[in-house]
Write a structure and sequence with these properties.
It is a single chain. The protein is 24% helix and 26% strand. It has 107 residues and is α+β, with helices and mostly antiparallel strands. It has a domain of 70 residues: Ubiquitin-like (UB roll) (Roll). Strands 2-1-5-3-4 form a 5-stranded mixed β-sheet, covered by helices on one side. Strand 3 and strand 4 form a beta hairpin. It starts with a strand and ends in a 15-residue tail after the last helix.
């Protein structure tokens, strides 16, 4: 038997549900056994990505004992665009973050 945890996080909290499955169980079987989709109806496994310990996996990927299956929410903002906005705001506020450092003698 495999001892698996299925987790899903939202901005206001997270759910971590332990399940016991037979050897050879898949990511999808763990998600189904946890009942997490009924608890969070916004989960759409046809579009959302899943993984084990931060590494993307297919729904039919086999699990090992003590794996943690994670269901990832879609990104609202592109991380690179968000970083660029933070840099621009910092520059506007007088910070030198994101600027190339130049030694005072370099010309």
């Amino acid at each position: 038997m495999l001892s698996i945890e299925v987790c899903y996080a939202q901005p206001d909290g997270q759910a971590l549900i332990p399940v016991i499955l037979p050897e050879g169980a898949t990511v999808k079987q763990a998600i189904d056994a946890s009942g997490i989709v009924a608890r969070f109806p916004t989960i759409d496994l046809s579009t959302q990505k899943v993984g084990v310990f931060g590494k993307l996996k297919a729904l039919d990927a086999p699990l090992a004992d003590h794996d943690r299956v994670e269901i990832y929410r879609p990104l609202i903002v592109d991380p690179m665009a968000a970083r660029q906005r933070r840099v621009q705001k910092s520059r506007k506020d007088g910070s030198i973050e994101g600027r190339r450092w130049r030694h005072k003698d370099a010309r």
